[in-house]
TrEMBL record:
Protein name: SAC domain-containing protein
Domain annotation SAC: ranges: 142-471
Annotated region described as Disordered, given as residue ranges: 718-762
Single GO MF annotation: phosphatidylinositol-4-phosphate phosphatase activity
GO biological process, one term: phosphatidylinositol dephosphorylation
UniProt organism field: Caenorhabditis brenneri
């Protein structure tokens, strides 16, 4: 595809076909196909591009054409015949050509030289020192395409359409799936019409945002064949945007973070596929503030939401057929309970026999990292999964089996827990497909390479989907995707926590604006009013964050002695980024992103593997605690809040803060002494040197990847290992596939008597730190009579 300019027009030529654009007003001009040689004006060749994305017009009569100039092969589609292959290409670089630009400038954009790169780098540097300099209008859209590199296209087969829809309607003119057609608005801008004209369609195709990956395995056991596995995630343009700017449902029944994920197997010239989707809880809800897991607020009544809720489900059934299976992984107690309850209330009120609803509190079921409990959900869903089935296309292109219905999964953000369970469901389906294909028998173990490949693909998928919605990315180079799967690298944040926090939300607003421009959403960005959280609210949020961390990570058999919200001493802000939990045998060290929603690292250190504990000044009279373990060194300083008796209390002076961090160190030392019968003490030092890096691991991966990073540190702790059997594989998450270590769940029944004898007054206080609360009532108990009478099939797990 070649770009030419004349004094009055910009011309795109491909295979003898041409598009003309008026360089003055940006209008698309319909002209007869003729040789460029017969034009009366001087014609200059500017360069070659790959694809026309579309057009955006800005104020001041500025008109930009966006082009793909670099792309790479991400995967291949099968064509209507088994021998045909169509490339799915990942967009690597996009340019925006101002129709009024000089020809030399257009040439430099298409083929940038070193001088151009130096100039661009200088511009970025100057913008850093002068942030108030007005940005060029097209820059935000270019960043959307170029920074993430998660847009894809296929010139020969529509990337927005699933395999089942493609093969069902082969030979018939197919309409692109508009909700996944990210550049449709930009293309209709060209002709100022609702549809894309035939002249324009010859130079373009739909692009989508999402994730595409493929892997090929050689099957040598009993059969000799190659199995190609492809995963494709398609993000919806409707209610698209950043996490804190797009939540829940809108007036048009669109939900935030709606993503369709298709897993495709190709072998023996056959194609098998299975489609799932995810989307935000379909009610009107919001969140006040961002830090430390603030409470979630439902903004409208059940009655005011019901019609919008039911319309959302009607659309899903019309698109995917029935049954519609809704899987809610939201906590059934605590902060998330009101949303879980409201979702269930809507399902009961809908009284829809085509809907099956599963409520599975993943945090509660898998408490203490016992992910075998995921098997409870999969077992409950087995009959439903068999009813839905999967798509099977034979070597002639005929659909011999259809998928009927879809599974819609959600948690709060539809990221970590959702990806975890979707991967588990996918693994179950793939194992069924592989058995039907004869890859392995019903009594045989599945090929280890197949399981490991699915683990990696779903972990990568979770990372990318998380990046697109929440703005967090994974450090893939630091993650081993098999075996124990530790986070190996050590990362020092370039910005302090507070700066990163505020920059994230500023960037989200810019990204939201670009998404709105590209997709044609309303230009009015839903403003998030960041009200100043008063001290009481912040204290409650911190207390909730620590309590919920304990509930998820610490097995019920263990006794929690204390829990603290602390700050990595390498950081310069006062924002809590670490939760430390002390039990009778271990120290849990949990690193969070600044909003407290995402765990980025978990380490479990055996108390007996603590070598020394020091307290000393880090400068400015601020005290730090330094814990040296077999794993390395942890250095923390206090936040402005302390936790006592499950209540967060404000520290009112530097002296109180210093006393608090000293008491934290003392409590950990006492806990170690009780376990080992030693008589160690906290070492007081004049100064603690803060290194440039610490052992705090930073990774912004999705939960599916995080769970594989959880490390139990110590010579007496068995690491998690990769499962190799069919019986345990279906119980594990495909992104971690962990076997439960022998000492994963520890009991307190074998403490030595010497520990009790050496118990001091301080240790007695420690035991009072976290009081045992009364058993809460069963969730949803008030709805049980209605559930028994409604036609919606409901399972509360």
């Amino acid at each position: 595809m070649l770009i030419y300019t004349t004094p009055s027009a910009l011309i795109i030529e491909e295979r003898g076909e041409k598009l003309h654009f008026n360089r003055k007003n940006g209008d698309f001009q319909r002209k007869p196909t003729e040789s460029l040689a017969v034009l009366d004006e001087e014609v200059q060749l500017c360069g070659e591009v790959e694809l026309l994305i579309g057009k955006i017009s800005y104020e001041n009569d500025q008109h930009f054409l966006f082009f793909v100039v670099e792309s790479s092969v991400a995967a291949q589609y099968r064509g209507t015949s088994a021998a045909t292959r169509h490339e799915i290409r990942k967009i690597e670089r996009v340019i925006a050509i101002n129709l009024k630009s000089e020809t030399s400038a257009i040439k430099a954009q298409i083929t940038p030289g070193s001088g151009t790169k130096l100039k661009q780098g200088t511009e970025k540097l100057m913008k850093f020192f002068n942030p108030n300099k007005e940005a060029r209008p097209q820059e935000d859209v270019l960043k959307l395409f170029n920074d993430s590199k998660d847009f894809y296209f296929c010139r020969d087969r529509d990337v927005t359409i699933s395999s089942q829809k493609f093969f069902t309607k082969r030979g018939i003119h197919q309409t692109s799936e508009e909700s996944f057609f990210w550049n449709k608005n930009m293309l209709t801008n060209i002709s100022n019409s609702a549809e894309i004209t035939p002249e324009i369609s010859k130079f373009t195709c739909p692009i989508m945002q999402g994730f595409v990956a493929t892997s090929q395995l050689e099957i040598t056991d009993q059969i000799n064949a190659f199995l190609t596995i492809t995963i494709i995630s398609r993000r919806s343009t409707r209610r698209a945007g950043a996490r804190y700017l797009r939540r829940g449902i809108d007036e048009s029944s669109n939900v935030a973070n709606f993503v369709e994920t298709e897993l495709i197997l190709n072998i023996f010239e056959h194609e098998l596929s299975f489609v799932q989707c995810r989307g935000s809880i379909p009610v009107f809800w919001s969140q006040r503030g961002f830090k430390y897991r603030p409470p979630l607020t439902i903004n409208r009544s059940l009655e005011d939401t019901q019609e919008v809720f039911e319309e959302h489900f009607r659309r899903l059934k019309a698109h995917y057929d029935t049954p519609l299976v809704a899987v809610s992984l939201v906590d059934q107690r605590g902060r998330e309970h009101p949303l879980a309850q409201r979702f269930l209330e809507h399902c009961v009120k809908a009284n829809d026999p085509d809907v099956t609803f599963f409520s599975f509190d993943l945090h509660q079921h898998c408490r203490g990292l016992n992910f075998q409990k995921l098997q409870t959900l999969i077992t409950s869903m087995e009959d439903t999964l068999k009813t839905i089935g999967f798509c099977w296309v034979d070597k002639t292109g005929e659909v011999v089996q259809r998928q009927k219905g879809v599974i819609r999964t959600n948690c709060i953000d539809c990221l970590d827990r959702t990806n975890l369970v979707q991967g588990q469901i996918s693994l179950y389906i793939v194992l069924q497909q592989a058995q039907r294909l004869g890859i392995f028998g019903p009594l045989c173990e599945p090929p280890e390479a197949l399981v490991q490949t699915l683990q990696t693909m779903w972990a990568d998928n979770g990372d990318v989907i998380s990046t697109q919605y929440a703005g967090t990315a994974a450090l893939k180079g630091d993650v081993t995707r098999n075996g124990e799967r530790k986070l190996m690298g050590v990362m020092k944040d370039g910005y302090n926590s507070a700066s990163r926090y505020y920059l994230t939300h500023t960037r989200d607003a810019q990204r939201q604006k670009a998404i709105n421009i590209v997709t044609g959403q309303s230009e009015v960005i839903e403003k998030v009013v960041e009200e100043e959280e008063n001290e009481k609210e912040e204290e409650e949020n911190i207390s909730r964050m620590i309590t919920e961390t304990i509930q998820f990570l610490v097995p019920t058999q263990q006794t929690v002695i204390a829990g603290w919200g602390l700050i990595n001493a390498c950081q310069s802000s006062d924002e809590i980024d670490t939760v430390v939990i002390l039990t009778r045998s271990s120290l849990y060290i949990v690193t969070y992103e600044i909003d407290g929603e995402k765990m980025t690292d978990v380490q479990i250190v055996a108390l007996e593997d603590i070598n020394s504990i020091q307290v000393g000044s880090s400068g400015n009279n601020r005290q730090c605690a330094r814990i040296e373990t077999l794993e390395g060194v942890f250095i923390w300083r206090p936040s402005t809040v302390r936790l006592f008796n499950n209540a967060a209390l404000r520290l009112k002076s530097l002296e109180e803060a210093n006393e608090y961090i000293a008491s934290v160190a003392e409590q950990i030392q006492v806990g170690r002494n009780m376990l080992t019968s030693a008589e160690g003490s906290v070492i007081q030092v004049a100064r603690i040197s803060i290194p440039q890096t610490s052992v705090h691991r930073k990774s912004m991966a999705a939960m599916g990847a995080l769970l594989g990073k959880i490390k139990r540190v110590g010579k007496n702790v068995s690491p998690a290992t990769l499962s190799k059997s069919a019986s345990t594989s279906s119980a594990m998450t495909p992104s971690t596939h962990l076997e439960p270590p022998a000492k994963l769940i520890e009991t307190d029944g074998n403490e030595s008597d010497t520990s009790e004898k050496s118990e001091s007054t301080v240790s007695k206080i420690l035991k009072m730190q976290f009081k045992t609360t009364d058993t809460p009532p069963e969730p949803f108990s008030s709805l049980l009579p209605s559930i028994a009478e409604c036609q919606t099939k409901i399972s509360l797990l």
